[in-house]
Amino acid sequence: MGSEKDCDQSNNLMIELTQGRELAKQLRDHLNHTCSSLQSGGFLVERILSSYEKALSMLNFTGVYLGGIQCTISSSESIPSLANSSPRSEDSERNSIRDQPHKIVLKKRKAALRWTEQVRVDPETGGEGPPDDCYSWRKYGQKDILGAKFPRCYYRCTHRNSQGCLAIKQVQKSDEDPLVYEITYRGRHTCMLASNAMQPSEKRQKLCTLQQEVKQSLKVKSEELDDKEQIFPPFTLPQTESYIFSDSLTESSDLIGSFSPPFISSSTSESNLFSLIDFQSLESDHTEILSNPTSVTNSPIGDVDFSLDPIEFDPNFPFDSPDFFV
DNA sequence: AATATTTGACCGAC
DNA sequence: GTCGGTCAAATATT
Question: In terms of one coarse class, where is the protein primarily found (predicted)?
Answer without folding.
Answer: nucleus
